[in-house]
């Protein structure tokens, strides 16, 4: 009991400047959903990409795909799934880096 009080009151853990890439899958999904909700309002795909890039080194559409899979497993509501899907489709329509464009 003394150890718990010491840990909670005297020397609690302080997280400073933690980045989104350290989030668990449930919080990453919520983050991706917030980005999708923002995108639904402003249609700013560049801003959505920047926000999702904070999650780590993977392609940004991969984070949305992971979020969709988690949302399906956890029975998220249809509106949330639709927002994530719309964002995923928009991200996949972008040209891939290093890809060959039209002549």
Features:
103 residues; 5 helices; mainly alpha; elongated
Task: Assign the structural class, choosing from mainly alpha, mainly beta, alpha/beta, alpha+beta, or little secondary structure.
Answer: mainly alpha
- Percentage of β-strand residues: under 5%
Terminal Cα span: 71 Å
Mean pLDDT: 87
Which descriptor suits the 3D outline?
elongated
Helical coverage, percent range:
55-70%
Gyration radius, in Å: 18 Å
State the helix count.
5
**Total DSSP E strands:** 0
Q: Main sheet?
A: none
As residue ranges, the low-confidence spans are none
How would you spell out the order of helices and strands?
A: HHHHH
Describe it for me?
The chain is mainly alpha-helical and 103 residues long. The chain has a domain at 24-92. The protein has helices at 2-10, 25-42, 45-53, 60-73, 78-92. The N and C termini lie far apart (71 Å).
In short:
This protein has 103 residues and is an all-alpha fold. Helices cover 63% and strands 0% of the residues.
